[in-house]
Amino acid sequence: MKNKPAALGIVILLVLSLVPRSANGAPAKPRIAKEKQTVLDWLAKPETVETFGKISDEIWGYAELGLQEFRSSKLLADTLEAAGFKVERGLAGMPTCFVATYGSGKPVIGLLGEFDALPMLSQKGRAAKKDPVVEGAPGHGCGHNAMCTAAAAAAIAVKEAMVAHGLKGTVKVFGSPAEEIVVSRPYMIRAGLFEGVDAVVDNHASQDFSTGYGVDGNALFSTVFTFKGKTSHAAGAPWVGRSALDAVEIMDVAANFLREHLNLASRLHYVILEGGEAPNVVPDRASVWYYVRNTDEGLEDMYQRVVNCAKAGALASGTELASVRVLSAIHQRHANKAAAELFQKNIELVGMPAWSEEEQAFAKALQKELGAKEEGLPAKVSPIEPPRTGRDFVGGGSSDVGDVTLIAPTATIQFPGWVPGAIGHHWSTVAAGYGSTAWKGLNAGAKAIAASAIDLLTKPEELAKLRKEFEEYSKTHPYKPFLPADATPPNDLNKELMDKYRGLLEKALEIK
Ligand SMILES: [Zn+2]
Fold first, then answer.
1. Where do the DSSP E strands lie in 402-446?
2. In sequence order, what DSSP letters do the residues of 52-80 get, joined into one string?
3. What span, in angstroms and rounded, lies between the C-alpha atoms of 75 and 58?
4. How many A from CA of 141 to the centre of ligand 1?
5. DSSP label at 478?
6. Is the peptide bond before 107 cis (omega within 30 degrees of 0)?
């Protein structure tokens, strides 16, 4: 053991001698294939950064809720069409769903892209204190304004490389509405849109530049329970009435008691959509919207217990459980390790953007306001994230990307731009998702997405690794949708809210 340091020194010298050196003696950069260099160069052009930065900011301003993303979806689809992609719109029963395709034949590489906002989060861009554009209006509190934008930029860069180098294969952008209400992907899969896709590059805005693999997040049932009762004068003859609101409240009480007896991974939350219109009329109609979340294994059992709470509410209040409408139902994410390893190499190749002093100052001001550590924006990309397993797995958020991971090898590139310490689904993330940090972050993301797509198009041995892992995994995890066969997309769910705020937002932000 004594001579270990000397032995280690020899090993280091040997390893160093194997690292390629450039003419001036510095370690040479890894050789980049010409096809990959084309996508990186195209995305590095200042006009490319600006074009897609402006698209991201424009979608941020529209702040359109799920299935109401008419302007956002059109802007992205038009941009891809103008770049030579064949665009199909209004797919899978959703007016704002599109698929943009370039090239032909195998391999087929899919890029996922989201563009919906969240209710109640309106906030001025790059303002470090809560300050809504329009009080109560929606806002981009999850960075989706930058996400389909990054996928579109990456896809067009890949097209440039396909043209320049005569590459074979197909690249597809899946314009996926309503991720925040986890609606689109199970319907898109059911409509056959992903048939023949060999691998999928997903992306999400983040505070890190990172990727990961394994099982993550929760499966989910999104369901609206509607009760029917009888109206009457709430004071004059209450004994005649049967309150549908009572049914909702009894259901909610039962569900809240149920919570105690669920596993650690579970999540259960609801909002009351309809609860009557005046206290002096017994409400004959009420409805409540539930998110029921658990692991893939635990979801259906938990969901049945919540349905039983609804039945109990109806029975106790003497009303009728008139409808149980599943808006969507999705799986956990099962990210492919080989895909994540490939994406990680490209994340490291691209590297963290250089942040300006002004960007760091904004980040620190926001961190101060939130009581978070005043560390500014990160300087380095993150290592690959292994999955949490066993007792470490405590559930969490959900994404309908989960269903995609079960029909094609998929992993997610998380690209930077968010301020560490900013809170998801909160005004602070809306503030951070606008302007130069978002422009740089989505551009870095687009480079990693495009470079990964190029690897999958040009290196059959890399794609084969993803496919082999996926096919092996599918034997124990075959795709069986949770989405009921008769479910239809809730296209009008957010219509009223968007009708209320669209004009106000456009006026406040002077959107033409
Ligand atoms: Zn999101």
1. 410-415
2. HHHHHHHHHHH-PBTT--HHHHHHHHHHH
3. 9
4. 8
5. -
6. yes
Distance CA 88, CA 80 (A): 11
How remote is the CA of residue 476 from the centroid of ligand 1, in Å?
28
Name residue 149's amino acid. T
386: pLDDT strictly greater than 50 = yes
Encode pLDDT of 218-231 as tens digits.
999 999 999 999 99
Output b/e per residue, 289-303; b: 16+ Cβ within 10 A. Answer: bbbbbbbbebbeebb
For residue 314, the tally of other CB atoms under 10 A from its CB is 23
Of all residues in the chain, what percent carry a pLDDT higher than 70?
Answer: 94
Residue 457 corresponds to which tokens in the numbers above?
């198009």
Which of 346, 347, 364, 342 minimizes the C-alpha distance to 355? 364
What is the Rg, in whole angstroms, of the alpha carbon atoms belonging to the chain?
Answer: 25
Q: How far is the CA of 418 from the centre of ligand 1 (A)?
A: 12
For the segment 77-87, what is each residue's pLDDT rounded down to a tens digit? 999 999 999 99
What are the pLDDT digits (tens) for 181-197?
Answer: 999 999 999 999 999 99
d(CA 355, CA 333): 32
pLDDT confidence of residue 4: 40
| Measured distance CA(390)–CA(477) in Å, rounded | 18
Distance from the CA of 10 to the center of ligand 1, in angstroms?
A: 49
Residue 405 sits at φ, ψ, to 5 deg, of -65, -20
Residue keyed to tokens 């658990």: 294
**What is the CA(402)–ligand 1 centre distance, in A?**
13
CA distance 156 to 290: 39
Give the C-alpha separation, 74 to 202, whole Å: 20
Q: Which residue has the tokens 């009223």?
A: 496
Is the model's pLDDT at 435 over the cut of 50? yes
* CA 500 / ligand 1 centre spacing (Å): 23
3 state SS of 219: strand
Element (H, E) at 496: helix 495-508
For residue 26, the model assigns a pLDDT of 55
Q: What is the DSSP letter of 200?
A: E
CA proximity to 84, closest of 159, 167, 32: 159
User: Quick one: tokens of 75?
Assistant: 């802007």
Residue of 210, 447, 236, 220 whose CA lies nearest to 328: 220
| pTM (2 d.p.) | 0.92
- DSSP secondary structure code for residue 129 in this structure: S
- The pLDDT value recorded for residue 17 is 42
pLDDT in tens, 448-468: 999 999 999 999 999 999 999
Closest CA to 62 of 4, 116, 129, 113: 116
Position 476 scores a pLDDT of 97
Q: How far is the CA of 330 from the centre of ligand 1 (A)?
A: 15
* Tokens encoding 487: 């479910």
Rounded to the nearest whole angstrom, what is the distance from the C-alpha of residue 73 to the centroid of ligand 1?
16
